[in-house]
Request: fold
Amino acid sequence: MSETQKPEKTPQSLVTESLLKKTLKTDKGDDAELISYEVKDFTSKGDNYACVVTSALVRYRQGDQKEKEVSYVAKCNPCRKQEIFDSVTIMAFSKEAAFYHKIVPLINVELEAVGQEPLRLPECYVNHEVEGEQVLMMRDLRVDGFKMFDRKKGMDKAHATLVVRELARLHAASVVAQDKMSEPIEDTHDFLMEDFDTLEMPDGKKIFEIVFASNLTNGAKMAEKIGGYEKVAEWLNSKSKEGLSMFVDCIRSKNEPFNVVCHGDCWNNNILFKYDEAGKPIDVRLIDLQICRKATPATDLNYFMYTSLNGPERKENLQSFLEIYYDTFLQVLSRAGKTMPFSLEELKKEYHRMNLFGFLMALMIVPLVVAEASEVMDFDEFGEDVEESMKGYEEKMLAQLDTNPLLQPRLLATYDEMLEYGVI
Reply:
């Protein structure tokens, strides 16, 4: 490399000494002195899409104490060469940073006021906002014993219950916070309304029109290949050009009692669990708030149910999950002296009203969930022609029906429910 040539920028190179010094002081105090650090990758292909997640092991000294170590997680701009993804990256980092620094304090005040624990999220210490070099420095939850559930397995009731309760706490506390505001929370925090349909950079919205169309047409091809699901294939093909518009209709749908701050991306990869000695899940952390939004809570519930659970587990326990969600929501509002804005029966109807959203997310996420690392979507391999790149991905996913026994049962359970519930 010549003296005038700059070294190639990588996500890991964005984790700099100055950034870690700032993180260390935010976490440990102004007298914490950084001695050295090492950037250490720990995630696998298929674990992350909108960013690259790595970690930094920091050695430091504080006062006269002996040298200590602390680990931080760094969520970094993926440094993709294709400019077509820049608008997505900018939106994702700005939304998540704003959520941690603006929404989390607002909601935690309400939870703590009614004697509840703060939101179960990792601490966000530093937000580095330089365009093209965005980094969020977070608490490393691995140190506390948290880890990701095997994405290829559908979550059981014990795991799912922890997630449903935490979603209810987030949603309910946002209602309490909203009631104390003089204007809609999305007016004060307009990033909550930024989404795939508001991307301003050239081709930003077009990317997702292509992605959603591809998901629907590929879902149709899978239904045809499996056989016996001609009605599903016909419906998916007829709606393929409407994928993004159907998604937008769901997230923008107004049903006044159901109007909360949503996680937006609640699926297996964005959830961590802690276990007891017997292997039972006892605690949960929600992570990756990069597409948080103001919407009906039924979008979060459907997203989670159809991407992270197997069909039998979802269907057999749906009544129980909705009751757990409702009771947790009610508890937060009752302690705050607020009236519950909807009944359990109304929640059930709202959940089913948003089954289309669950279907759209399942078509996008489930093939990724069950795929081997070598088969998952890799945006770094995409060319400037997104449509052509998606065709290559479709071929991989279609081939999975023959090689991956986990895919077909997940798809069929979803197809069956969409037929039963009248979505198709």
Notes: The two ends are 58 Å apart (CA to CA). The chain has two domains: 13-78, 86-127+147-420. The first helix runs from residue 17 to 28.
